[in-house]
UniProtKB/TrEMBL annotation, chain A:
Top-level taxonomic group: Bacteria
Cofactor: pyrroloquinoline quinone
CDD domains: PQQ_mGDH
SMART domains in the cross-refs: PQQ
Keyword field contains Nuclease: no
Signal peptide: 1-23
Pfam families from the UniProt entry: PQQ
Positions with biased composition (Low complexity): 30-48
Organism for this UniProt entry: Marivivens donghaensis
Name this polypeptide is given: Pyrroloquinoline quinone-dependent dehydrogenase
Similarity field: Belongs to the bacterial PQQ dehydrogenase family.
Region entry Disordered, spans: 26-92
UniProt keyword Signal present: yes
Length: 707, 124
C-alpha cells in the first residue's frame, strides 16, 4: 500500500469520535480449563415477584429478583416458570406489516413479501425520494443531526420522525406529503452530542369509533422528553393525551436529575400500551437518573406501570441502566423484552459494588403489569459500557427436533445470546467463565470473577486474542501501532480498565459488535442475519487530581470524560497511527448469516467499503457499520449501514451482493419494506451519523420493480 | 542550443483533450449529487489535478526551452498517474479512461519534442 492510498484508511479515524455517542444512544491461559468446562446448571426457576399494588396507576417499587445466589457479586439468572397463559395474538404477524421501528414488535425485520426476489432485484429502481429539510452538519448554530429513523408504514401512509422533531406523513407510492406536524421542540442537544431521532410509533384502536379523532395515533418523542400524540389521519394533536396532546415524561425524572430524559427512540407499542424508555448522558456523572421504563395509556397518556431497573438502596448512588433502544414484545405470551444498559459511571463501579441484577441485561416483564418474569444479566458488574443496545429478536426455532420459542440478544461484545423467550432458559448452554481481575491500580473497584459466555452461536468477533497489529499501519506509523499495543493490557474480553501504561485495550469496545439495528430473522429458513463492527479502542482511568490537571477540569473534552462524582476520570481513544490508520487488521465490519436450527454460521463476508475524503478502501476490508438489515420472503437481505452510504441487497442463502444504489449519507437505520396497491417497496433513510462518518443527510429513497 | 518554439503537436492536443475529459468527469463527480464522492476532498483534488494538467499542457508549446518543456511534460505524466490512481480509489472509472487518453498524449508530446530537438540539434 502506497502513501496516498494509506490516507484512505484514515476513514476509520472517524470512529474515534464515537465515544459517548455509541454509549447512548480471553480467558487467561491458566483459566482455559475452567472456561471449557460444561455449562453450569441453570439456577432454579423463580416465581415472578408478587404483585404488591394492583392500582390502576403504578410507580412500582423495585422488586428484587428471587434467585439462589450461587456466585457472590454476580446476578444469577432469574428464570420464568413457563406455562404462561397465551392471549392468542400470534407472535408472527399473519400479514405483511412494517408499523414499528423494527418492522414488527417481535423485532424480526421480516417482510413476507416476494415480489422482489433474487432473480429480479437487479432491476430495482428508485420510484421516489424525499428530503425532509431537517438536517444540520453542525457548522452553524445547530448541532449536527443524527437520523436513524426507520420509516413506518401504517394506515396506508409512510410516517417519518425527523431530528428536528417533526412528523412527516407521505403517500407510500409517490412520496407526496399528506401532512406534517412540527413539535416546535427545543433544538438543543441537551443530553447528546447531536440532534437525534429514531422515528415514530403507531397505534390504532382495536375497535375504532367512527367519526372520532385519534383512533389512530402517531407518537414522537423529543430531546427534552415530551411525548407528542398526533392523529395519524389529520396530523392534529390528540388533545386527550397528556396535557393538550403532550405527555411530559420528564415529570418522572425525580432522582439525580442532572440531565433531562431524552426520548430519541420511539416508544414500543403493544395492545393498549405505549412503552417508553429514555436516553441520557453517559460518561459524565457517577450519580445519574436511575433507569425506568414507563407504560402509558395510548389515548390519555395515563401511567399504567413503571419498571425500575436499579435496587432502591442504590438508586441515589448510581444511575442509568436505562432502556434507550427499542424493545420487543410477544403479545401472545404477554411479555415485553427490555434491553437494559449499564449503570453509571460506565468505567468505574466502586459506587455500585452490590449487585444491580437488571443492569446490562435482557429482562422480560409482564405486558399488563410491568412485573419481572425473567431476567438474564449479560455482563456482571459492567465497567465497560457494554449496554444491551438492541431489541432482542423473537423467533420460533427448531433445535434437535424441538420447537423452541426463542429470542436472540445481540450485544456490543459480539456475543449472541439465545434463550427461551418464555422462561429465559438457555437454548444452547451459556457458561459462566472466569475473567481477569484488576491489576490493583484502581481503588474501590469490584471485579466480577466470571462472565456469561454463549457456547453457540460463535462470537461475531474473536475477543479471546489481542487483535493483530495491521502491518501497513504499523509501517506508516513507524512502529507506533506495535508500541501502543505492547503498552496496552489485554487478557481477553472483560480485561478491566486500569490507570497503568496507556490503559487497557478494549476489543470490542463500547462501539463494537452489534448496534441498535439488531438481528433480522427469516422464519421460513430460520436464518438470522446481523451486521457487526470490528473496532479496537483503549480505555484509561485517571485519578481525579491527575484527570483534572491533564484535561483542565471535568469538561467534555474529546476522548476525555469526567465521570464526575467518582474518583476516576477516563479517556477512550481508537487505536490509530498518526495518520489515522487503524492499528488493527481488517475487516472492519461484516454481514453474518446464522442457521438458527444449529447455531452455526452459514456465511459471513465483509460489508461495504470504508471511505475517507471520498476515497474508498478495498471491499475486502469492509466498513464499520451502524444500522441494520431487513429480510424478505423473496430470499433477500436489504441493508445500508456502511460508510460508503450505499443501499444494498444480498442473497440470503449465499451472501452474494445483488444490487446497490448510492444514497446521500450513510443509512444508519434498518430499511422498511411494505406493499401498497399490490406493489412491493423498499424504503431507506439516509440520515448519517458522525459515529460512522462525518456526513449527514435528510433523504428518504423508495425502490420498487418497474411497473 | 534550442532556439525555436516547439509546434503544437498532436501529443499536446491529445493531452489537452484527455485533461479536458478528465475535468468534465471530475466536475461531474464533484458537483452532481449521489455520485458517492460529491463534495469530497478527494473528488475536489482530482478536479484540481485535471485543471492543472490542462494548463500545463497548454503551456508546453509556449516554451522553447527543452528543460521547461520536458519538466512540464514529466509533471503532466506524474499528474496523469496520480489522477488515475486517485480515480481508482474514488471509483471514477471514466476518469481513468480520460487519463489513458492523456497518457497517450503526454508520451507522444514528450517523444515528439525529443525527435524535433534532435533534428534541430542536427541542423546546428
Amino acid at each position: 500500500m502506497n502513501f496516498r492510498s494509506s490516507l484512505f484508511v484514515s476513514c476509520i479515524a472517524l470512529t474515534a469520535a464515537m465515544g459517548p455517542v455509541w454509549a447512548q444512544e480471553e480467558v487467561p491461559a491458566e483459566d482455559q480449563t475452567q472456561a471449557e468446562q460444561p455449562a453450569e446448571e441453570a439456577a432454579p426457576a423463580a416465581e415472578p415477584a408478587a404483585e404488591e399494588d394492583a392500582g390502576p396507576q403504578m410507580f412500582r417499587e423495585y422488586q428484587p429478583p428471587q434467585t439462589d445466589d450461587n456466585l457472590e457479586g454476580i446476578a444469577d439468572p432469574l428464570l420464568g416458570s413457563g406455562g404462561r397463559e397465551r392471549t392468542g395474538t400470534p407472535m408472527q404477524p399473519e400479514e405483511a406489516r412494517w408499523d414499528s421501528f423494527h418492522g414488527q414488535v417481535n423485532g424480526q425485520k421480516y417482510a413476507p413479501l416476494d415480489q422482489i426476489r433474487v432473480e429480479n432485484v437487479g432491476d430495482l429502481e428508485k420510484v421516489w425520494d424525499y428530503h425532509t429539510g431537517d438536517v444540520s452538519d453542525g457548522s452553524g448554530d445547530l448541532a449536527a443531526t443524527v437520523w436513524s429513523a426507520t420509516p413506518i408504514f401504517a394506515n396506508d401512509t409512510l410516517y417519518l420522525g425527523t431530528p428536528f422533531y417533526r412528523v412527516v406523513a407521505l403517500e407510500p407510492d409517490t412520496g407526496k406529503v399528506k401532512w406534517s406536524f412540527n413539535t416546535d421542540s427545543t433544538l438543543e442537544p441537551l443530553t447528546q452530542p447531536a440532534l437525534k431521532n429514531r422515528g415514530v410509533s403507531y397505534w390504532e384502536a382495536e375497535n375504532p369509533v367512527e367519526g372520532e379523532a385519534c383512533q389512530k395515533i402517531i407518537y414522537l418523542g423529543t430531546m427534552d422528553a415530551q411525548l407528542f400524540a398526533i392523529d395519524a389521519d389529520t396530523g392534529e394533536k390528540c388533545t386527550d393525551f397528556g396535557e393538550d396532546g403532550v405527555l411530559d415524561v420528564n415529570q418522572w425524572n425525580t432522582v439525580n436529575d442532572r440531565f433531562p430524559f431524552s426520548l430519541l427512540q420511539p416508544p414500543t407499542i403493544a395492545g393498549n400500551h405505549v412503552i417508553i424508555g429514555w436516553a441520557g448522558k453517559d460518561w459524565a456523572y457517577s450519580e445519574a437518573p436511575p433507569g425506568a421504563v414507563f407504560s402509558v395509556d395510548p389515548q390519555t397518556g395515563e401511567l399504567q406501570w413503571a419498571f425500575q431497573t436499579i435496587p432502591d438502596e442504590l438508586r441515589e448512588q448510581t444511575g442509568t441502566a436505562n432502556v434507550w433502544t427499542a424493545m420487543s414484545v410477544d403479545e401472545d405470551l404477554g411479555l415485553v423484552y427490555m434491553p437494559i444498559s449499564s449503570p453509571s459511571p460506565n468505567y468505574w463501579g466502586g459506587n455500585r459494588v452490590d449487585e444491580v441484577p437488571y443492569a446490562t441485561s435482557t429482562t422480560a416483564v409482564d405486558l399488563e403489569t410491568g412485573e419481572v418474569v425473567w431476567s438474564r444479566q449479560w455482563v456482571h458488574h459492567d465497567i465497560w459500557d457494554y449496554d444491551i443496545n438492541s431489541a432482542p429478536t423473537l423467533m420460533d426455532i427448531t433445535v434437535d427436533g424441538e420447537e423452541i420459542p426463542a429470542l436472540i440478544q445481540a450485544t456490543k461484545m459480539g456475543f449472541l445470546f439465545v434463550v427461551n423467550r418464555e422462561t429465559g432458559d438457555d437454548v444452547w448452554p451459556i457458561e459462566e467463565r472466569p475473567v481477569p481481575g484488576g491489576d490493583g491500580s484502581v481503588d474501590g473497584e469490584y471485579y466480577a470473577p466470571t462472565q456469561p459466555f454463549p457456547t453457540k452461536p460463535a462470537p461475531l468477533l474473536d475477543q479471546a486474542e489481542k487483535p493483530e497489529v495491521w502491518l501497513p499501519a504499523d509501517i506508516v506509523g513507524a512502529g507506533s501501532c506495535s508500541r501502543l499495543f505492547d503498552d496496552l493490557w489485554y487478557e481477553g474480553m472483560y480485561t478491566p480498565p486500569t490507570t497503568k501504561g496507556s490503559g487497557v485495550l478494549a476489543y470490542p469496545d463500547s462501539a463494537g459488535g452489534v448496534q441498535w439495528g439488531g438481528v433480522a430473522f427469516d422464519p421460513e429458513t430460520q436464518t438470522a442475519v446481523v451486521n457487526t463492527s470490528h473496532i479496537t479502542q483503549y480505555i484509561q482511568l485517571y485519578a481525579r487530581q491527575e484527570y483534572d490537571s491533564q484535561t483542565g477540569g471535568s469538561g467534555n473534552e474529546s476522548g476525555f470524560y469526567p465521570q464526575e462524582g467518582s474518583p476516576y476520570g477516563m479517556s477512550l481513544f481508537s487505536a490509530f497511527n498518526w495518520l489515522g490508520m487503524p492499528c488493527w487488521k481488517p475487516p472492519f465490519g461484516e454481514l453474518v448469516a446464522l442457521d438458527m436450527t444449529t447455531g452455526d454460521v452459514k456465511w459471513r463476508k465483509p460489508l461495504g467499503m470504508s471511505q475517507k475524503f471520498g476515497f474508498y478502501m478495498p471491499e475486502s476490508m469492509g466498513s464499520p457499520t451502524i444500522g441494520g438489515p431487513a429480510v424478505t420472503a423473496g430470499g433477500l437481505i436489504f441493508i445500508g449501514a456502511t460508510m460508503d452510504a450505499k443501499a444494498r441487497a444480498f442473497d440470503l442463502e449465499t451472501g452474494e451482493e445483488l444490487w446497490s444504489d448510492q444514497m446521500e449519507a450513510p443509512i444508519v437505520a434498518n430499511p422498511a419494506i411494505y406493499e401498497y396497491n399490490g406493489r412491493q417497496y423498499v424504503a431507506f433513510v439516509a440520515g448519517g451519523n458522525s459515529i460512522i462518518k462525518d456526513q449527514v443527510g435528510d433523504q428518504v429513497a423508495v425502490y420498487a420493480l418497474p411497473e | 542550443m534550442q532556439s525555436e518554439q516547439p509546434p503544437l503537436g498532436s501529443g499536446v492536443i491529445i493531452l489537452m483533450v484527455g485533461a479536458a475529459l478528465g475535468i468534465a468527469v471530475a466536475a461531474y463527480y464533484y458537483f452532481v449529487p449521489l455520485t458517492g464522492v460529491n463534495g469530497t476532498i478527494g473528488a475536489g483534488l482530482v478536479l484540481f489535478s485535471t485543471v492543472a494538467m490542462l494548463i500545463a499542457a497548454a503551456l508546453m508549446p509556449l516554451f522553447s526551452s527543452k528543460a521547461i518543456y520536458m519538466t512540464l511534460g514529466l509533471l503532466c505524466l506524474l499528474d496523469v498517474f496520480l489522477t488515475a490512481l486517485a480515480g481508482y480509489f474514488l471509483h471514477e472509472w471514466l476518469l481513468i479512461a480520460a487519463m489513458v487518453v492523456a497518457l497517450v498524449g503526454v508520451i507522444r508530446a514528450i517523444s515528439r519534442f525529443s525527435v524535433i530537438h534532435r533534428h534541430q540539434g542536427a541542423r546546428v
